[in-house]
Amino acid sequence: METETLAGQADLLVRQVTHWTPARWSGRGDAVYALVQRLADAAAAAEGQPRRPVPRLADTVLADQVRVIVADLLAIAPSGAVADALAADIRSTRLAL
Hints:
Elements: H1 2-17, H2 22-25, H3 29-47, H4 62-76, H5 80-96
Helix pairs in contact: 1-4, 1-5, 3-4, 3-5
């Protein structure tokens, strides 16, 4: 159930931003990139791997980065508490946009 919430929140975020123009991204990309990095850090921790910086790509591809990292997280199957915390993080980022 927790991974469905994580996947659902990620899907809502992706649908919210995927059609944005570069002008719409102005001032918002850093928040989504920071989220991407936190998700990647959580994935690394769940796998017992060191944290690595996620490449900062163009704002218009941040939705794809979210998709990929959440898919990696779902494949790892994080604990319910971790999945819930990540879903809450995605939700708060989405609402702040």
